[in-house]
Design a protein that fits this description.
Blueprint (H helix, E strand, L loop, with lengths): L1 E5 L9 H15 L3 E7 L11 E4 L2 E2 L7 E2 L3 H15 L5 E4 L4 H12 L4 E4 L4 H9 L1 H19 L10 H9 L4 E4 L2 H9 L7 E2 L6 H4 L14 E6 L8 H11 L4 E6 L5 H10 L6 E5 L3 H10 L2 E4 L9 H8 L4 E3 L2 H6 L5 E3 L5 H16 L16 H18 L4
Parallel strand pairs: 1-2, 1-6, 2-3, 6-7, 7-8, 8-9, 10-11, 10-13, 11-12, 13-14, 14-15
Antiparallel strand pairs: 4-5
Helix pairs in contact: 1-15, 3-5, 4-5, 5-6, 9-14
Length: 402
């Protein structure tokens, strides 16, 4: 099969969606298929990838890490021209985007009579509101709804300020819509984006996990090793987590922070202000395999975001290499094997502090919750790719949705 992926952002930009579709590409190609990526051009890219079409885009301030496609018609013509040069017919389109890339992918599938699979990665309502507020979220929805209606040649929805209505404009053209978690699939169904969403989690790279063995700590009196990893942005609630770690004041425990983002300077300041510099260290970004190896050595990996994550790969990767997790979102906790999770009663700083204290007490008493045997629970990409290939075959057999 020749599968055409449409994404919002260049794979060199930081983000879980980019990691996910590149991993899918890797395992689809390993299975003998061809994957071509359509992505926004990135101005500070570190590599040119084979099988990638970069369409005209403008960098999004302040960092320029992400891009926006201001003219989808120009982007469309670029894809048309570059695919013609490849002279390799496309069998199926897979939307791995949530905004302009989603419109472009749906338009391409519709115009070329191709079957379409759509993966909805992001809760735009929560993500945009966290960054820009509710008023700008409604304005963004108006723009996206008008944009989609124009490109897909149908009427704009009555409630043009509803971001879920925009998602429905895309999904109505898809043979199948997938979501990375059960709770997000239910959210899509609740908002009538799709009648039935198929749950297919983002996977963990088999090659990364292979050879990384869970570390079993014998000495319960050792310095406890906690890890927080993710994008340093408001929706990830890193500042709240630092407040919880400070409030917990756990004796003989250290915190390692990995990631980058707009709150990096603020995190450094908070570490000093709260007097945590001697027990908490900010390390910045690590190569992916190094980070997962680091997870395997930790006593727990924490995730502090609430209502934002549609899956939250960090905790999946941690459990895959044997390390238990602490989470603040009960919906994320419900997707994971309960025996490897400490769940904060509420997302508040005080309750996260209590959960940290409870975790430390459990570990000291020998109840380390190490995920040495996850049973049937698995998110290895090789297994998930096999399921996706079956879905592609089913969509191709059905033919394009009209």
């Amino acid at each position: 099969m020749h599968i055409l992926f449409f994404a919002d952002h260049h794979p060199d930009s930081l983000g879980g969606v980019q990691t996910s579709f590149m991993l899918q590409k890797k395992f689809l190609e390993r299975a003998g298929h061809t994957v071509t990526l359509v992505v926004s051009r990135r101005y500070r890219r570190s590599r040119r990838l084979e099988g990638m079409i970069e369409v005209p885009a403008l960098p999004v301030p302040p960092t320029g890490a992400y891009s926006i496609e201001p003219s989808l018609k120009l982007a469309y013509r670029t894809v048309q021209r570059k695919l013609a040069k490849m002279a390799l017919p496309v069998d199926i389109v897979h939307i791995q985007a949530d905004m302009w890339g989603a419109i472009l992918g749906a338009a391409w599938a519709k115009d070329h009579g191709l079957p379409l699979v759509q993966t909805v990665h992001t809760n735009l309502e929560v993500g945009i509101s966290h960054t820009f507020g509710k008023m700008l979220t409604r304005r963004a929805a108006q723009v996206m709804n008008a944009w989609a209606a124009s490109m897909l040649d149908h009427d704009a929805p009555r409630n043009s300020k509803d971001i879920w209505a925009f998602k429905e404009q895309i999904s109505r053209h898809a043979n199948f819509v997938t979501a990375p978690s059960t709770h997000f699939a239910k959210e899509l169904e609740k908002h009538k984006v799709v009648e039935k969403a198929i749950v297919l989690p983002n996977g963990v790279d088999d090659d990364v996990v292979e050879g990384i063995h869970p570390v079993v700590h014998e000495n319960v009196e050792r310095t406890l090793d906690f890890v927080w990893a993710g994008r340093l942005s408001s929706e990830k609630r890193i500042t709240e987590f630092l407040g919880a770690f400070h409030t917990a004041n756990i004796p003989n425990a250290k915190l390692s922070i990995y990631g980058s983002g707009q709150l990096e300077a603020k995190v450094r300041i908070i570490l000093v202000q709260l007097g945590l510099s001697h027990v908490a260290t900010f390390y910045g970004r690590l190569p992916h395999r190094d980070l997962v190896t680091r997870f395997a050595a930790a006593d727990l990996v924490a995730q502090s975001s609430v209502a934002f994550e549609t899956q939250g790969m960090t905790v999946y990767e941690a459990i895959a290499v044997g390390t238990p997790v602490l989470v603040a979102d009960p919906k994320i906790a419900a997707e994971l094997p309960a025996e490897f999770v400490w769940l904060s009663k509420t997302p508040s700083v005080d309750d996260m502090a209590r959960a940290l204290t409870r975790a430390a007490k459990d570990i000291r008493s020998g109840n380390t919750k190490r995920a040495l045997d996850t049973g049937e629970w698995s998110v290895l990409q090789s297994q998930l790719t096999a399921k996706m290939i079956d879905l592609y075959k089913k969509a191709i057999k059905e033919g394009p949705k009209h």
